[in-house]
Amino acid sequence: MDLSERPGESAVERWFDGGLKFKCTGCGKCCTGSSGSVYLSQNDLERLAQLFRLPVGSFARKYTRVSKGRRVLIDGPDSHGCVFLADKICSVYEARPTQCRTYPFWLTNIRDPEAWQEAARTCEGIDHPGAPIVSASEVLAQCRVDEENEVSLERRRPA
Ligand code: SF4
Questions:
Q1: Would 15 be classed as within a structural domain?
Q2: Ligand 1 — pocket residues by CB below 6 A?
Q3: Residue 147 lies in a domain
Q4: Is-cis flag, bond preceding 129, omega within 30?
């Protein structure tokens, strides 16, 4: 998929030209699971530190660690869930990391209908009966934000 195409500029039909159905139900499943999966860009770090009224370094020492050269959030005390998940609710929602903001509109999830259905196996908000349709342009906008965030993460990775 070519994300450089602007919505409406391409004659090529995307499989999701009619939009994608999604609404977060708050089930919290995407906030639990494999350890070390919430990556933080510099912008994410600064936004979260500001929420906690902490210097970035202090926030990083308290709530993050380095995994495979990338800064990630630490796990919660009792599980492999996110440290900021409280009673299945994100306690830092307004300052949540970019990868959480853009989920599930990640390139890996929207590349074809099969990938979208695969994502729906773990995210009940995808194709949920009460979910609104998110327009193709909004899906692509979210995906671009996520891709740009990925690039900034790669730039920060030590050699
Ligand atoms: S798995 Fe999907 S529906 Fe559940 S909290 Fe995450 S984004 Fe929302």
A1: no
A2: 24-30, 103, 123-125
A3: yes
A4: no
Residue type, 30: C
Number of structural domains (the chain) is: 1
**4 Cβ neighbours under 8 A, 6+ residues apart:** none
pLDDT for the residue numbered 8: 42
The answer, yes or no, to whether residue 74 has pLDDT greater than 80, is yes
Pairing of strands 70-73, 64-67: antiparallel
Instruction: Say if CB 1 and CB 107 are below 8 A apart.
Output: yes
Q: Is 14 domain-assigned? A: no
Give the Cα separation of 73 and 40 in Å (integer).
Answer: 7
What is the extent of the structural domain holding 86?
20-156
CA of 12 to the centre of ligand 1 (A): 30
Q: pTM of the prediction?
A: 0.85
Kindly report the number of other CB atoms within 10 A of residue 10's CB atom: 12
Q: Is residue 2 part of a domain?
A: no
Q: Whose CA is nearest to atom 6 of ligand 1?
A: 30
Tokens for 159?
Answer: 């050699």
CB contact at 8 A, 104 and 119: yes
Residue-wise pLDDT for 2-36, tens only, equals 565 554 445 457 899 999 999 999 888 888 865 44
